[in-house]
Amino acid sequence: MAKYQDDATQLLKAIGGKGNISAVTHCATRMRFVLNDQSIADEKAIDDIPVVKGTFTQAGQFQVIIGNDVATFYNEFTKIAGVEGVSKDAVKSASKQNQNAIQKAIGILAEVFAPLIPAIVVGGLILGFRNIIGEIKFDSLDGQTIVQVSQFWKGTYDFLWLIGEAIFHFLPVGITWSIAKKMGTTQILGIVLGITLVSPQLLNAYSVAETAANKIPYWDFGFFHIEMIGYQAQVIPAMLAGFLLAYLEIGLRKVIPQAISMIFVPFFALIPTVLAAHLILGPIGWSIGSWISNVVYAGLTGSFSWLFGSVFGFLYAPLVITGLHHMTNAIDLQLTADFGGTNLWPMIALSNIAQGSAVLAIIFLHRGNKKEEQISIPATISCYLGVTEPAIFGINLKYVYPFVAAMIGSACAGLLSTSFGVMANSIGVGGLPGILSIKPEFWMPFLLCMAVAIVIPIVLTIFFEKKGILTKAGVVDDSISDLFNN
Fold it and tell me: Which CDD domains match (predicted)?
Protein backbone atom coordinates (compact mmCIF):
# COMPACT_ATOMS: atom_id res chain seq x y z
CA MET A 1 0.00 0.00 0.00
CA ALA A 2 1.26 3.46 -0.80
CA LYS A 3 2.62 5.38 2.16
CA TYR A 4 -0.01 8.14 2.21
CA GLN A 5 -2.93 6.46 0.46
CA ASP A 6 -5.25 6.58 3.49
CA ASP A 7 -4.33 10.15 4.36
CA ALA A 8 -4.77 11.30 0.77
CA THR A 9 -8.18 9.61 0.57
CA GLN A 10 -9.27 11.31 3.79
CA LEU A 11 -8.07 14.72 2.56
CA LEU A 12 -9.92 14.33 -0.74
CA LYS A 13 -13.14 13.59 1.11
CA ALA A 14 -12.64 16.40 3.65
CA ILE A 15 -12.11 19.12 1.02
CA GLY A 16 -15.31 18.17 -0.79
CA GLY A 17 -14.12 15.66 -3.38
CA LYS A 18 -12.70 16.02 -6.85
CA GLY A 19 -15.56 18.25 -7.97
CA ASN A 20 -14.58 20.93 -5.46
CA ILE A 21 -10.99 21.19 -6.72
CA SER A 22 -10.41 23.98 -9.24
CA ALA A 23 -6.61 23.71 -9.16
CA VAL A 24 -3.94 22.10 -6.98
CA THR A 25 -0.17 22.34 -6.66
CA HIS A 26 2.40 22.21 -3.85
CA CYS A 27 5.35 24.20 -2.55
CA ALA A 28 8.17 23.18 -0.18
CA THR A 29 5.90 22.10 2.67
CA ARG A 30 2.26 22.74 1.69
CA MET A 31 -0.48 21.53 -0.60
CA ARG A 32 -2.09 24.53 -2.29
CA PHE A 33 -5.71 24.25 -3.41
CA VAL A 34 -8.07 26.57 -5.22
CA LEU A 35 -11.49 25.28 -4.21
CA ASN A 36 -14.73 25.99 -6.02
CA ASP A 37 -16.53 26.33 -2.69
CA GLN A 38 -14.26 26.68 0.31
CA SER A 39 -17.15 26.43 2.78
CA ILE A 40 -17.49 22.74 1.90
CA ALA A 41 -14.01 21.95 3.27
CA ASP A 42 -14.15 20.40 6.74
CA GLU A 43 -11.12 22.00 8.40
CA LYS A 44 -11.47 20.05 11.67
CA ALA A 45 -11.53 16.74 9.78
CA ILE A 46 -8.50 17.85 7.77
CA ASP A 47 -6.60 18.77 10.95
CA ASP A 48 -7.33 15.28 12.32
CA ILE A 49 -5.59 13.56 9.37
CA PRO A 50 -2.28 12.15 10.69
CA VAL A 51 -0.07 13.66 7.98
CA VAL A 52 -1.63 17.13 8.19
CA LYS A 53 0.08 19.67 10.44
CA GLY A 54 -2.30 22.59 9.94
CA THR A 55 -4.40 24.55 7.45
CA PHE A 56 -4.91 28.17 6.53
CA THR A 57 -6.27 30.31 3.72
CA GLN A 58 -4.31 33.07 2.01
CA ALA A 59 -4.70 34.96 -1.27
CA GLY A 60 -7.64 32.79 -2.32
CA GLN A 61 -5.71 29.55 -1.76
CA PHE A 62 -6.64 26.85 0.76
CA GLN A 63 -3.29 25.58 2.03
CA VAL A 64 -2.67 22.32 3.89
CA ILE A 65 0.64 21.98 5.73
CA ILE A 66 2.18 18.55 5.11
CA GLY A 67 5.90 19.00 5.76
CA ASN A 68 9.02 17.87 3.92
CA ASP A 69 7.23 14.84 2.41
CA VAL A 70 4.76 17.06 0.57
CA ALA A 71 6.03 16.07 -2.89
CA THR A 72 5.41 12.36 -2.19
CA PHE A 73 2.02 13.09 -0.66
CA TYR A 74 1.10 15.34 -3.61
CA ASN A 75 1.85 12.59 -6.13
CA GLU A 76 -0.34 10.08 -4.27
CA PHE A 77 -3.13 12.62 -3.76
CA THR A 78 -3.34 13.60 -7.44
CA LYS A 79 -3.35 9.92 -8.40
CA ILE A 80 -6.19 9.06 -6.01
CA ALA A 81 -8.15 12.23 -6.80
CA GLY A 82 -7.74 11.78 -10.55
CA VAL A 83 -6.74 15.43 -11.00
CA GLU A 84 -3.87 17.00 -12.88
CA GLY A 85 -1.53 19.19 -10.86
CA VAL A 86 -0.68 22.60 -12.24
CA SER A 87 2.11 25.15 -11.76
CA LYS A 88 2.21 27.64 -8.89
CA ASP A 89 1.53 30.46 -11.36
CA ALA A 90 -1.55 28.65 -12.63
CA VAL A 91 -2.81 28.23 -9.06
CA LYS A 92 -2.20 31.93 -8.38
CA SER A 93 -4.18 32.78 -11.49
CA ALA A 94 -7.03 30.44 -10.57
CA SER A 95 -7.12 31.72 -6.98
CA LYS A 96 -8.14 35.17 -8.20
CA GLN A 97 -11.68 33.87 -8.58
CA ASN A 98 -11.81 33.84 -4.76
CA GLN A 99 -10.40 37.36 -4.35
CA ASN A 100 -12.12 40.75 -4.31
CA ALA A 101 -10.84 43.77 -6.23
CA ILE A 102 -8.68 45.01 -3.35
CA GLN A 103 -7.07 41.59 -2.85
CA LYS A 104 -6.33 41.37 -6.57
CA ALA A 105 -4.73 44.83 -6.58
CA ILE A 106 -2.59 43.97 -3.55
CA GLY A 107 -1.63 40.67 -5.21
CA ILE A 108 -0.41 42.52 -8.29
CA LEU A 109 1.58 44.94 -6.14
CA ALA A 110 3.16 42.04 -4.26
CA GLU A 111 4.12 40.24 -7.47
CA VAL A 112 5.71 43.43 -8.84
CA PHE A 113 7.98 43.94 -5.82
CA ALA A 114 8.73 40.30 -4.96
CA PRO A 115 11.38 39.84 -7.72
CA LEU A 116 13.11 43.04 -6.56
CA ILE A 117 13.42 42.14 -2.87
CA PRO A 118 16.72 40.17 -3.11
CA ALA A 119 18.47 43.11 -4.76
CA ILE A 120 16.96 45.61 -2.32
CA VAL A 121 18.04 43.49 0.66
CA VAL A 122 21.59 43.31 -0.72
CA GLY A 123 21.53 47.06 -1.30
CA GLY A 124 20.43 47.70 2.27
CA LEU A 125 23.25 45.56 3.64
CA ILE A 126 25.77 47.32 1.41
CA LEU A 127 24.63 50.75 2.56
CA GLY A 128 24.84 49.58 6.17
CA PHE A 129 28.38 48.26 5.72
CA ARG A 130 29.46 51.49 3.96
CA ASN A 131 28.09 53.47 6.88
CA ILE A 132 30.10 51.40 9.35
CA ILE A 133 33.44 51.86 7.60
CA GLY A 134 32.83 55.33 6.20
CA GLU A 135 30.73 57.22 8.73
CA ILE A 136 31.52 55.93 12.25
CA LYS A 137 34.46 57.61 13.96
CA PHE A 138 36.40 55.36 16.34
CA ASP A 139 38.31 56.59 19.38
CA SER A 140 40.90 53.88 18.73
CA LEU A 141 41.56 55.50 15.36
CA ASP A 142 42.01 58.98 16.86
CA GLY A 143 38.47 59.99 15.99
CA GLN A 144 38.74 58.93 12.33
CA THR A 145 36.73 56.48 10.27
CA ILE A 146 38.11 53.20 8.95
CA VAL A 147 38.02 54.62 5.41
CA GLN A 148 40.15 57.60 6.48
CA VAL A 149 42.98 55.41 7.81
CA SER A 150 42.99 52.57 5.27
CA GLN A 151 43.34 52.81 1.50
CA PHE A 152 42.01 49.27 1.12
CA TRP A 153 38.78 50.10 2.92
CA LYS A 154 38.57 53.40 1.05
CA GLY A 155 38.70 51.45 -2.21
CA THR A 156 36.12 48.99 -0.86
CA TYR A 157 33.86 51.88 0.19
CA ASP A 158 34.01 53.46 -3.27
CA PHE A 159 33.62 50.15 -5.12
CA LEU A 160 30.53 49.07 -3.18
CA TRP A 161 28.75 52.26 -4.20
CA LEU A 162 28.75 50.88 -7.76
CA ILE A 163 26.33 48.20 -6.57
CA GLY A 164 24.38 50.46 -4.22
CA GLU A 165 23.81 53.02 -6.95
CA ALA A 166 22.73 50.34 -9.42
CA ILE A 167 20.13 49.03 -6.97
CA PHE A 168 18.64 52.23 -5.59
CA HIS A 169 19.27 55.00 -8.11
CA PHE A 170 18.23 52.75 -10.99
CA LEU A 171 15.33 51.17 -9.11
CA PRO A 172 12.79 52.43 -11.72
CA VAL A 173 14.38 50.11 -14.28
CA GLY A 174 13.69 47.12 -12.03
CA ILE A 175 10.13 48.26 -11.36
CA THR A 176 9.18 48.78 -15.02
CA TRP A 177 10.81 45.46 -15.97
CA SER A 178 8.95 43.64 -13.19
CA ILE A 179 5.62 45.16 -14.25
CA ALA A 180 6.21 44.06 -17.85
CA LYS A 181 7.05 40.56 -16.63
CA LYS A 182 3.99 40.42 -14.38
CA MET A 183 1.64 41.68 -17.09
CA GLY A 184 3.04 39.33 -19.74
CA THR A 185 4.23 42.14 -22.01
CA THR A 186 7.61 42.72 -23.67
CA GLN A 187 10.19 42.85 -20.88
CA ILE A 188 12.89 44.66 -22.88
CA LEU A 189 10.43 47.51 -23.47
CA GLY A 190 9.94 47.73 -19.71
CA ILE A 191 13.71 47.93 -19.27
CA VAL A 192 14.04 50.63 -21.95
CA LEU A 193 11.24 52.63 -20.33
CA GLY A 194 12.98 52.43 -16.97
CA ILE A 195 16.26 53.63 -18.46
CA THR A 196 14.51 56.67 -19.96
CA LEU A 197 13.49 57.62 -16.41
CA VAL A 198 17.06 57.57 -15.07
CA SER A 199 19.12 58.46 -18.16
CA PRO A 200 22.40 60.35 -17.44
CA GLN A 201 21.26 63.16 -19.78
CA LEU A 202 18.49 64.03 -17.28
CA LEU A 203 18.93 66.22 -14.22
CA ASN A 204 19.45 63.80 -11.33
CA ALA A 205 16.43 63.61 -9.02
CA TYR A 206 18.67 64.31 -6.03
CA SER A 207 19.81 67.60 -7.60
CA VAL A 208 16.37 69.00 -8.42
CA ALA A 209 15.75 70.62 -5.01
CA GLU A 210 18.99 72.60 -5.15
CA THR A 211 18.64 73.67 -8.80
CA ALA A 212 16.99 77.00 -9.62
CA ALA A 213 13.84 76.68 -11.73
CA ASN A 214 15.40 78.63 -14.61
CA LYS A 215 18.42 76.31 -14.59
CA ILE A 216 16.51 73.06 -15.08
CA PRO A 217 17.17 71.75 -18.63
CA TYR A 218 14.25 71.00 -20.90
CA TRP A 219 13.25 69.65 -24.29
CA ASP A 220 11.97 72.51 -26.42
CA PHE A 221 9.13 71.57 -28.78
CA GLY A 222 8.46 75.16 -29.84
CA PHE A 223 4.98 75.71 -28.43
CA PHE A 224 5.66 73.68 -25.26
CA HIS A 225 8.59 72.20 -23.39
CA ILE A 226 9.22 69.25 -21.04
CA GLU A 227 11.66 69.47 -18.14
CA MET A 228 14.52 66.99 -18.34
CA ILE A 229 14.21 65.64 -14.81
CA GLY A 230 15.28 62.14 -13.78
CA TYR A 231 13.35 59.89 -11.43
CA GLN A 232 16.21 58.08 -9.70
CA ALA A 233 14.95 55.92 -6.79
CA GLN A 234 11.35 57.06 -7.39
CA VAL A 235 8.75 54.32 -7.01
CA ILE A 236 5.34 55.68 -8.00
CA PRO A 237 6.41 57.43 -11.25
CA ALA A 238 7.97 54.16 -12.38
CA MET A 239 4.85 52.19 -11.44
CA LEU A 240 2.50 54.55 -13.28
CA ALA A 241 4.67 54.51 -16.40
CA GLY A 242 5.17 50.74 -16.25
CA PHE A 243 1.45 49.97 -16.07
CA LEU A 244 0.65 52.47 -18.83
CA LEU A 245 3.18 50.77 -21.11
CA ALA A 246 1.79 47.32 -20.28
CA TYR A 247 -1.83 48.25 -20.92
CA LEU A 248 -0.98 50.13 -24.10
CA GLU A 249 0.89 47.10 -25.44
CA ILE A 250 -1.95 44.73 -24.49
CA GLY A 251 -4.50 47.02 -26.16
CA LEU A 252 -2.45 47.50 -29.32
CA ARG A 253 -1.98 43.76 -29.75
CA LYS A 254 -5.76 43.46 -30.07
CA VAL A 255 -6.11 45.98 -32.90
CA ILE A 256 -2.84 45.76 -34.89
CA PRO A 257 -2.58 42.81 -37.31
CA GLN A 258 -0.11 40.18 -36.20
CA ALA A 259 1.89 40.47 -39.45
CA ILE A 260 3.04 44.00 -38.55
CA SER A 261 2.69 43.88 -34.75
CA MET A 262 6.42 43.39 -34.16
CA ILE A 263 7.05 46.85 -35.64
CA PHE A 264 4.07 48.95 -34.67
CA VAL A 265 3.13 47.59 -31.23
CA PRO A 266 6.48 48.50 -29.59
CA PHE A 267 6.60 51.83 -31.45
CA PHE A 268 3.13 53.03 -30.52
CA ALA A 269 3.40 51.67 -26.97
CA LEU A 270 6.84 52.93 -25.98
CA ILE A 271 7.01 56.45 -27.42
CA PRO A 272 3.66 57.69 -26.03
CA THR A 273 4.49 56.13 -22.66
CA VAL A 274 7.88 57.84 -22.42
CA LEU A 275 6.28 61.15 -23.42
CA ALA A 276 3.49 60.72 -20.86
CA ALA A 277 6.00 59.63 -18.21
CA HIS A 278 7.96 62.86 -18.42
CA LEU A 279 5.08 65.21 -19.17
CA ILE A 280 2.32 63.88 -16.88
CA LEU A 281 2.92 60.66 -14.95
CA GLY A 282 6.37 61.49 -13.60
CA PRO A 283 5.45 64.84 -12.00
CA ILE A 284 2.15 63.46 -10.68
CA GLY A 285 3.80 60.30 -9.34
CA TRP A 286 6.58 62.31 -7.71
CA SER A 287 4.02 64.51 -5.96
CA ILE A 288 2.01 61.50 -4.76
CA GLY A 289 5.12 59.70 -3.56
CA SER A 290 6.43 62.79 -1.75
CA TRP A 291 3.04 63.36 -0.11
CA ILE A 292 2.84 59.75 1.11
CA SER A 293 6.41 59.69 2.41
CA ASN A 294 6.00 63.10 4.11
CA VAL A 295 2.81 62.01 5.86
CA VAL A 296 4.34 58.71 7.00
CA TYR A 297 7.60 60.40 8.01
CA ALA A 298 5.69 63.02 9.99
CA GLY A 299 3.84 60.23 11.78
CA LEU A 300 7.10 58.41 12.50
CA THR A 301 9.02 61.44 13.76
CA GLY A 302 6.37 63.90 15.01
CA SER A 303 5.02 64.59 18.49
CA PHE A 304 2.84 61.49 18.38
CA SER A 305 5.47 59.16 16.89
CA TRP A 306 5.08 56.88 19.93
CA LEU A 307 1.39 56.44 19.07
CA PHE A 308 2.11 55.85 15.38
CA GLY A 309 4.78 53.29 16.26
CA SER A 310 2.61 51.41 18.72
CA VAL A 311 -0.40 51.31 16.38
CA PHE A 312 1.68 50.20 13.40
CA GLY A 313 3.48 47.60 15.50
CA PHE A 314 0.16 46.27 16.79
CA LEU A 315 -1.52 46.11 13.36
CA TYR A 316 1.32 44.91 11.12
CA ALA A 317 0.73 41.18 11.75
CA PRO A 318 -3.01 41.50 10.89
CA LEU A 319 -1.92 43.29 7.70
CA VAL A 320 0.13 40.20 6.82
CA ILE A 321 -3.04 38.11 7.04
CA THR A 322 -4.83 40.37 4.55
CA GLY A 323 -1.82 40.79 2.26
CA LEU A 324 -1.90 44.57 2.70
CA HIS A 325 1.60 44.49 4.21
CA HIS A 326 3.01 44.37 0.67
CA MET A 327 2.18 48.06 0.33
CA THR A 328 4.88 48.89 2.88
CA ASN A 329 7.60 47.93 0.37
CA ALA A 330 6.71 50.89 -1.82
CA ILE A 331 6.47 53.22 1.19
CA ASP A 332 9.82 52.05 2.57
CA LEU A 333 11.53 52.64 -0.78
CA GLN A 334 9.95 56.09 -1.09
CA LEU A 335 11.10 57.01 2.43
CA THR A 336 14.61 55.83 1.56
CA ALA A 337 14.63 57.98 -1.57
CA ASP A 338 13.32 61.10 0.20
CA PHE A 339 14.98 60.88 3.61
CA GLY A 340 18.02 58.64 3.17
CA GLY A 341 16.52 55.80 5.19
CA THR A 342 13.28 54.39 6.56
CA ASN A 343 11.89 54.43 10.10
CA LEU A 344 9.11 52.06 9.06
CA TRP A 345 11.09 48.95 8.20
CA PRO A 346 12.67 48.48 11.67
CA MET A 347 9.17 47.99 13.10
CA ILE A 348 8.45 45.32 10.49
CA ALA A 349 11.56 43.41 11.56
CA LEU A 350 10.43 43.75 15.19
CA SER A 351 6.98 42.39 14.35
CA ASN A 352 8.67 39.35 12.77
CA ILE A 353 10.62 38.78 15.97
CA ALA A 354 7.53 39.16 18.14
CA GLN A 355 5.54 36.54 16.23
CA GLY A 356 8.46 34.12 16.42
CA SER A 357 8.83 34.72 20.16
CA ALA A 358 5.16 33.87 20.76
CA VAL A 359 5.68 30.55 18.96
CA LEU A 360 8.82 29.98 21.03
CA ALA A 361 6.64 30.24 24.13
CA ILE A 362 4.21 27.71 22.63
CA ILE A 363 7.11 25.31 22.07
CA PHE A 364 7.99 25.63 25.76
CA LEU A 365 4.39 25.30 26.97
CA HIS A 366 3.53 22.37 24.72
CA ARG A 367 6.90 20.59 24.85
CA GLY A 368 6.51 16.94 24.04
CA ASN A 369 3.80 17.53 21.44
CA LYS A 370 5.82 16.07 18.56
CA LYS A 371 3.21 16.74 15.88
CA GLU A 372 2.93 20.41 16.76
CA GLU A 373 6.70 20.78 17.00
CA GLN A 374 6.98 19.81 13.34
CA ILE A 375 5.32 23.18 12.64
CA SER A 376 6.31 25.32 15.61
CA ILE A 377 10.08 24.80 15.58
CA PRO A 378 10.61 25.57 11.86
CA ALA A 379 8.08 28.42 12.15
CA THR A 380 10.09 30.03 14.96
CA ILE A 381 13.30 29.83 12.97
CA SER A 382 11.51 31.21 9.92
CA CYS A 383 10.12 34.16 11.94
CA TYR A 384 13.50 35.01 13.40
CA LEU A 385 14.80 35.14 9.81
CA GLY A 386 11.97 37.40 8.68
CA VAL A 387 9.23 35.13 7.27
CA THR A 388 6.17 35.08 9.52
CA GLU A 389 3.46 33.26 7.57
CA PRO A 390 4.26 29.73 8.86
CA ALA A 391 4.11 30.99 12.45
CA ILE A 392 1.02 33.15 12.00
CA PHE A 393 -1.07 30.63 10.10
CA GLY A 394 0.39 27.42 11.50
CA ILE A 395 0.39 28.24 15.24
CA ASN A 396 -0.51 31.72 16.42
CA LEU A 397 -3.87 32.14 14.71
CA LYS A 398 -4.82 28.57 15.62
CA TYR A 399 -4.65 29.46 19.32
CA VAL A 400 -5.29 33.24 19.03
CA TYR A 401 -3.70 34.20 22.36
CA PRO A 402 -0.06 33.92 21.12
CA PHE A 403 -1.02 36.03 18.11
CA VAL A 404 -2.41 38.76 20.38
CA ALA A 405 0.61 38.48 22.70
CA ALA A 406 2.91 39.00 19.72
CA MET A 407 0.86 42.00 18.55
CA ILE A 408 1.20 43.60 22.00
CA GLY A 409 4.94 42.89 22.07
CA SER A 410 5.33 44.34 18.60
CA ALA A 411 3.37 47.44 19.64
CA CYS A 412 5.67 48.02 22.61
CA ALA A 413 8.77 47.53 20.46
CA GLY A 414 7.33 49.84 17.78
CA LEU A 415 6.66 52.52 20.40
CA LEU A 416 10.29 52.36 21.52
CA SER A 417 11.60 52.26 17.95
CA THR A 418 9.83 55.47 16.92
CA SER A 419 10.61 57.14 20.26
CA PHE A 420 14.31 56.53 19.67
CA GLY A 421 13.99 57.49 15.97
CA VAL A 422 15.49 54.18 14.82
CA MET A 423 16.19 54.29 11.08
CA ALA A 424 17.24 51.58 8.63
CA ASN A 425 19.31 52.20 5.52
CA SER A 426 16.58 50.49 3.49
CA ILE A 427 14.63 47.25 3.40
CA GLY A 428 16.85 44.47 4.63
CA VAL A 429 16.86 40.98 6.07
CA GLY A 430 13.94 40.60 8.48
CA GLY A 431 13.84 39.21 11.99
CA LEU A 432 16.98 39.01 14.15
CA PRO A 433 19.45 39.72 11.28
CA GLY A 434 17.50 42.95 10.70
CA ILE A 435 20.01 44.82 12.82
CA LEU A 436 22.46 44.56 9.92
CA SER A 437 20.32 47.01 7.95
CA ILE A 438 19.90 49.51 10.81
CA LYS A 439 22.02 52.66 10.72
CA PRO A 440 24.91 52.03 13.15
CA GLU A 441 24.06 54.97 15.41
CA PHE A 442 20.75 53.25 16.21
CA TRP A 443 22.11 49.78 16.96
CA MET A 444 21.86 50.05 20.75
CA PRO A 445 18.25 51.36 20.75
CA PHE A 446 17.31 48.67 18.23
CA LEU A 447 18.87 45.96 20.42
CA LEU A 448 16.64 47.17 23.25
CA CYS A 449 13.62 47.05 20.92
CA MET A 450 14.57 43.50 19.90
CA ALA A 451 14.75 42.46 23.54
CA VAL A 452 11.25 43.87 24.10
CA ALA A 453 9.95 42.05 21.00
CA ILE A 454 11.35 38.79 22.41
CA VAL A 455 10.49 39.02 26.09
CA ILE A 456 6.98 40.52 26.09
CA PRO A 457 5.38 38.00 23.65
CA ILE A 458 6.94 35.08 25.55
CA VAL A 459 5.77 36.34 28.95
CA LEU A 460 2.27 37.26 27.70
CA THR A 461 1.80 33.97 25.85
CA ILE A 462 2.64 32.01 29.00
CA PHE A 463 0.45 34.30 31.11
CA PHE A 464 -2.53 34.07 28.74
CA GLU A 465 -2.38 30.29 28.67
CA LYS A 466 -1.97 29.87 32.41
CA LYS A 467 -4.86 32.26 33.11
CA GLY A 468 -7.08 30.96 30.31
CA ILE A 469 -7.20 34.38 28.59
CA LEU A 470 -8.24 34.28 24.94
CA THR A 471 -7.98 30.48 24.99
CA LYS A 472 -10.74 28.21 23.69
CA ALA A 473 -13.25 27.88 26.56
CA GLY A 474 -10.35 28.67 28.88
CA VAL A 475 -9.14 25.05 28.71
CA VAL A 476 -5.97 24.99 26.67
CA ASP A 477 -4.93 21.40 27.29
CA ASP A 478 -8.25 20.01 26.00
CA SER A 479 -8.10 22.19 22.91
CA ILE A 480 -4.60 21.00 22.19
CA SER A 481 -5.70 17.42 22.50
CA ASP A 482 -8.65 17.98 20.19
CA LEU A 483 -6.54 19.70 17.56
CA PHE A 484 -3.45 17.56 17.45
CA ASN A 485 -4.26 14.04 18.68
CA ASN A 486 -5.71 11.57 16.23
Answer: PTS_IIB_glc
